[in-house]
Amino acid sequence: MIRYALICDRDHEFEGWFAASADFDDQQARGLVECLMCASKAVRKAIMAPAVAGTKRRSQDRSPAQHHAMMMEAMGRVRRHVEETFDDVGDAFATEARAIHEGRSEDRGIYGQATSTEVRDLVEDGIPIAPLPPEPVKKSELN
């Protein structure tokens, strides 16, 4: 497996894993590579520093609490992006996701609620979905 640092035309950075070095180019040419945050297909490889044995990784310098806080912040940014740019379809999520997948509804980003049975059926039918990160804890609710 090969890991590439990727970046879209809106400067969203993420990583992708590919079985071989030519797989990125092949998938990119077929329009299969897209940004995880905005679904842009204008994705390119970002400059990466190679992993060098014996160097210390920055994540090892962080405490578990710092790492947790960083992950919660990143999940909060993802959630805010979805809420600001996707359509909230409420409890019609499963129906609308299926309609989009089948080409009966406009192709767009959506979010909403679905039962566990609806989620299982969507996944079994190959309809790409992902859970929305939880809402961040309000500062007033912290100790």
Compose a concise summary of this entry.
The protein has 143 residues and is α+β, with helices and mostly antiparallel strands. The protein has 4 helices and 5 strands; from the N terminus they run ββαβαβαβα.
Q: Any overview of this molecule?
A:
This protein has helices spanning 21-29, 64-85, 93-101, 116-124; strands at residues 2-8, 13-18, 43-45, 87-90, 110-112. It has 143 residues and is an alpha+beta fold. The longest helix is centred in the middle third of the chain and has 22 residues, at 64-85. The chain is built from four helices and five strands; from the N terminus they run E-E-H-E-H-E-H-E-H. A three-stranded antiparallel beta sheet has the order 2-1-3. The protein folds into two domains: 2-45, no CATH class; 68-141, no CATH class. It is globular.
List strands and helices in order, with pairings.
Elements: E1 2-8, E2 13-18, H1 21-29, E3 43-45, H2 64-85, E4 87-90, H3 93-101, E5 110-112, H4 116-124
Parallel strand pairs: 4-5
Antiparallel strand pairs: 1-2, 1-3
Terminal CA distance reads 43 Å
How many beta-strand segments? Answer: 5
Number of domains: 2
Order of helices and strands: EEHEHEHEH
Residue runs with pLDDT of under 50 for 5 or more positions: none
Strand content: 15-25%
Q: In angstroms, what is the radius of gyration?
A: 18 Å
Overall mean pLDDT score?
A: 85
**Helix content bin:** 25-40%
Shape: globular
Strand numbers in spatial order across the main sheet: 2-1-3
